[in-house]
Fold these 4 entries.
Entry 1:
Amino acid sequence: MGAGVQLAPVPHTDLSRIPDLVAGLRQAFDGGRTRPIAWRREQLARLRALLTENTDRLLAALQADLGKPELEARTTDIAVVVQELDHVAANLERWARPEPAATPLTQKPGSSRVLREPLGVVLVISPWNYPVQLLLSPLVGSIAAGNTTLLKPSELTETVSSALAELIPQYLDPTCTTLVEGGVEETQALLAERFDHIFYTGNGAVARIVMRAAAEHLTPVTLELGGKSPCIVAKDANLDVAARRIAWGKWLNAGQTCVAPDYVLVEEGVEEAFLEKLRATIREFYGDDPQKTDDLGRIVNGRHHARLLGLLEGQPIWHGGRSDAAQRYIEPTIVRNPRPESKLMQEEIFGPILPVLTVPSIDAAIDFVNKREKPLALYVFSSSESTSEAVLTRTSSGGACVNATIWQVANPHLPFGGVGPSGMGSYHGRGTFETLSHHKAVVSKTTWVDPKIAYPPYTSFKKAIVRKVM
Ligand code: NAD
């Protein structure tokens, strides 16, 4: 690995080591190690090898922590990062090139360009629901942009965290990428340090802690948060397709997905048909007893399991509702027309419970959405383009799909991020590279000509010329 400070992995971080870890990353950055594109490419290729050579281990860890079905884990935690890596590999030189900009006549002769400059040391704090993807996808952009990176995975998925803590120093330059394991205390110790960017994914309450700490050092932040993402099903929707796509997006990872449909607003007249199709889809996907299938994940821990059962208390359960605390299992559950003031309709559900509410019209659905915080995602199902366009233009959300769920996240050509309380900033593909680069404006002038017009003394002749042209 060459010269530099060797940073060992931190199984459960000794808090006193944190300042040195950050200082080590800064020293490596200041030494210029991460700047050459060839170094970045090599690190990205190693990260790809980490994923492809250890897929089985990571799948097993995702199964242990979240009961993640193999196909879901392979696609949403591993393939999505490999796809991101390949996209970066195909484009990095182009993105990193100086970008020419126009030069106004008044500044000629001269030329202008925008340089992409690495920021320095980036802190990535990630949650437990997609613990591989949400830690490594920001890392791809951080390396691509030429930064050093400190990774802080979630303590809630500790099998995945400890696997990554072991693998990352085996594959990546340990002077430039390091991982700190631990929980609140370790994260807070990290937040006391100065970083050049903090990339946080998780809930809004912790995001406020992160932003407050970042303010102390004037460190910019990207906040990837959550919220209650609605689905709107119009009368003219293809109900079979809507039921299937909503069910898939909802019960993927047992509903523990930041962009999962949180609730459905279905237009009056088709609610019975839609609900029956949803129920039939659950049977088709997971069988009569979904506890027996391998294709449905589990709730991350006992605390979240109890929280979800609490949300169901006193609710009009229309389908499902069975649970098993020992297995952290909750059946795919549909609640019909819960009270909008109930906790189920106030908090982000983040589990396998789907409220379905009937609304008299699309206008009423739009009103319902607009009376609440801006969500991370919104999904509209309709056969009419004017209906889906009306929903898209009259509501605000981080991203959206028409006649689909989740796919907006998986396209590296689209920015992924929230708006308002669902997040700040965006990433994926070129977006991560741009977010974790400084855009430096540069003007270069020749010296063979140096018109005196702009310099004092400001004679009346100069003033007259300036008045004429400006
Ligand atoms: P979590 O509990 O794992 O917390 C996320 C990170 O914050 C962890 O690394 C944790 O150690 C740290 N943390 C927790 N409490 C802290 C504290 N008091 N001080 C400092 N650090 C602390 O995950 P979570 O927040 O429960 O994740 C679920 C939330 O994340 C949901 O709201 C979901 O919608 C959102 N989410 C958003 C995205 C996105 O890309 N927008 C993706 C996944 C999840």
Note: Residues 125-129, 134, 152, 154-156, 183-184, 187-188, 201-203, 206, 209, 224-226, 258, 348, 350, 376, 418, 423 surround nicotinamide-adenine-dinucleotide (CB under 6 Å).
Entry 2:
Amino acid sequence: MKKYMLNEFNELKNKENLTILAIESSCDETAVSVVRNGREVLSNVVASQIEIHRRFGGVVPEIASRNHLMAISNLYEQALKSAGVKAEELDAIAVTYGAGLVGALLVGINFAKGLSYALKKPLIAINHVHGHIASNYISHPDLKPPFLCLMVSGGHTALLKITDYNKFKLLGTTVDDAVGEAFDKVARVLGLPYPGGPEIDKLAKEGKNNIKFTVSNSLHATLNFSFSGIKTSVINYVHKFDQKKEDFCKADVARSFEEAVTDELVEKSIRAMRLTGMKKVVIAGGVGANSMLKSKMSKKCKEKGFEAYFPVLKYCTDNAAMIGSAAYYYIRSGIGLAPLDLTARPSIDL
Ligand code: KG4
Ligand code: ZN
């Protein structure tokens, strides 16, 4: 059977200018963006549900889906209006189809399918992780592969060798928790609000690195990561004080944890650079907003003659502009055309 909109999709491959409407709803941010030629963000609207989920200490999937549903039509209108683009002028509709929460993803996917069908524009299915990588293309107009990518989000922690826009080789990944997950759990045990990463980042600035929390040594020889051991050490440390009803310095815990985790991320990235011969490391994902990671990685890279790239803050965490950028490079590579029975994928290989 012929693929849905195959001819229209093929025509886009060589079209000079591409204007893409992108939708992201994989977790607790509903986002719509219009991006031109993979680098120029014409509009980027995000409705964050952080305040809604905060009182539950984390994302409640069902509540996330309902809120995506309530927000998405308005965001679509806003994204077109602030881009100054008419729906007929769009070349394609891009949407995150995984990884993420199934119910949340389905809201974005179904809305995108409706648009694709009504506007007769190809539907492009985007891997969320590829979107995070592309957040650097909109942040750094001159950045091009090849480079090494350190992917650090709430769902992933990985090192990838990227030799072209759509050529990814996985060098190492976490064997247990993602680093963002570890930040969020440590924050929770310290009684900090959700999402914990930015809270730890802030609190650590007031603390001392005086508690010995270490990242598991068992993966030392590899480029894989493990963060569940250090997370458990922090939880045990806090519980011991709680049981004795004694006080401890939360800022010192945050600082000591953050130091150990960022050392590990920097050390393995530098090692991966040496092993692959790459000269640039590109950080992607929400934990890329971490100030200690940014300063340590930049300093170490400078010492070694490497370059470190971080996405600008608003593109670190989930947004649709990064999905629109990734979609541009999918189309140029002739990949990503999706059928109208596209469905959500809660997990996808990197
Ligand atoms: O990429 P992202 O928005 O969503 C996923 O695709 O997972 O990442 C969210 C993660 C959360 O775990 C959050 O706590 C973490 O990124 N995060 C941070 C900081 N800002 C966000 N972690 C450490 N320091 C930060 N400043
Ligand atoms: Zn994300």
Note: Residues 27, 132, 153-155, 180, 183-184, 195-198, 201, 285-287, 289-290, 317-318 surround KG4 (ligand 1) (CB under 6 Å).
Entry 3:
Amino acid sequence: MKTILITGAAGDVGTHLRRELAGKYALKVSDLRSLKKINPEEQFVGADISKMSDALKITKGVDAVIHLGGYSVEGPWEGILNANIVGCYNMFEAARRNGVKRFLFPTSNHAVGFYPRSTTIDDRVYIKPDSRYGVSKVFGEALGSLYADKYGMQVYCMRIGNVGTKPLDKRRLSIWFSPRDLAQLVIIGIEHPDIRFEIVYGISGNKRAWYDNSNAFRLGYKPKDDSEAYAAEILAREPAGGDVITEKYQGGAFCVAEDIPNPAPLPEKRAAKTKGKKKK
Ligand code: 15L
């Protein structure tokens, strides 16, 4: 059985993924926060990936890395810099030094969020990040490309939409990603024999998708879910109108917001330290 490292394992996406992959792989799960075990076979290793020594510790002896860890919304540069720039570099570099061949990088729809909703985009479009967070995801994609070309790492970038059991609103009808479709796309990333450097969109088979996901389909992805089943209910409760920019672009509120509430706040001790630093 392959051993797979999941960073950011305490987060929403990590929790769905651990449940979906349980029994299929030996899961080494890591986070800055503590987490509840989903099954007894999971091995938890706490780590702060902004430290290279921690990144080296967790990437030892694994067959593949799924690097979910990081700052997951638009926010202050310091948090994004530590987690998504320094942390992401440490993870790629530590994986290389430990001889890990395969790296799954969950990037984001916000790497291309400034494409208008009227445009369908594929995996080869020029990047158009909608936020500092989006820029940090583009940085991870660029690192992936470098590590694939220079060091022969097999890198699989999933531009994730929004993972959840249901789409949350009108925008998410286009980018919804059900947990079972997430698991299917991840398993392709772990198992497909011909991954070199790939970009795929992490969404279900949504009728309202803004993406031409043919690269994922070429690799065998056959999504089982479609947000359309929820469309009538969501559209009926969503008020018409709204901010012009937010409504025009795929990234929605990320195109205008400076600080979106962080769904995965830092543990108290670490947050206090960061606050202290800022004041100086
Ligand atoms: C993301 O990239 C975020 O990680 C997630 O929290 C959601 O905000 C999602 O995008 C989205 O666009 O809905």
Note: The chain is about 40% helix and 15% strand.
Entry 4:
Amino acid sequence: MNVPNIPLAGVIGRPIGHSKSPRLHSHWLQRYGVPGHYIPMDVATNDLAHVLSVLPKAGFRGVNVTIPHKEAVLDIADVISDRASLIGAANTLTFQSDGKLHADNTDGVGFIANLRQNAPGWDATAGPALVLGAGGAARAIVAALLHERVPQILLANRTRARADALKAHFGGKVEVVDWNNVSSRLGDATTLINTTSLGMTGKEELKLPLDNLRTSTLVTDLVYTPLTTPLLTAAAAKGCPTVDGLGMLLHQAAPGFERWFGHTPEVDEALRKVMLR
Ligand code: NAP
């Protein structure tokens, strides 16, 4: 008797209880009738290499990786995609049939797919993007914007040295703007992106007067709890198009699902509703 091969995938991090990925993948598994499972796994940094060596033997096709392992997995992977290498972190690992561990970073493509879906007229080449923040997420956003041929990136971060480091890494199209000087440069931007954790439930608000912002500038926030951040509320009140950060979370998950479970999943209103429950 043939035993059916149940595909497995999951997410590795520490802590992992807050992760929304199991709910997202479980929805898709059910929706497409895939007889697989997606499992959250709390893994210590010291155990990371061992766990990743064992999982394929237990039927795992791949895993997502979250804090604090996104950088460390690059030292363990056998094959690293160009974008993961450029960003310096991975969020999607695949156990290849040749036994090699493939590391990719889908945050940037998730970010772009979200804008394409929810602001169809948006064009990265139309003008400079102003990026707030220079943490892990900002690296993926800057890489994605450059890939989309944005003409210039104005980058502002509370800790200037981190913004300077991103400029040194990504090169001439990045101009570092002083954190205290952001509002005076708002008028230059055709896209404004918050990649800081400011505005998140339980964190400080992003205090940025939007007087100089053009009403045609697309404003998006990576923070998705709350879904409509104070930044998005203020931008919408000014008449700017806005896109929330939930779509990025959903779109960044799609390439992994497709690789591990063999279906191209849809990001639609039904999925958003499931995630907002
Ligand atoms: P991170 O590496 O810890 O970076 C945090 C960023 O926020 C840094 O730029 C930091 O500035 C800034 N920041 C924190 N507190 C601040 C404050 N009080 N004043 C000014 N700046 C402050 O985190 P991350 O991984 O980049 O994530 C950033 C946010 O994006 C989080 O809210 C995360 O949930 C969200 N995110 C969303 C998605 C999605 O799919 N929608 C994906 C990834 C991340 P300093 O350098 O000065 O500390």
Note: The pocket of NAP is lined by residues 107, 133-138, 157-159, 162, 195-198, 200, 204, 222-224, 245, 248-249, 252 (CB under 6 Å).
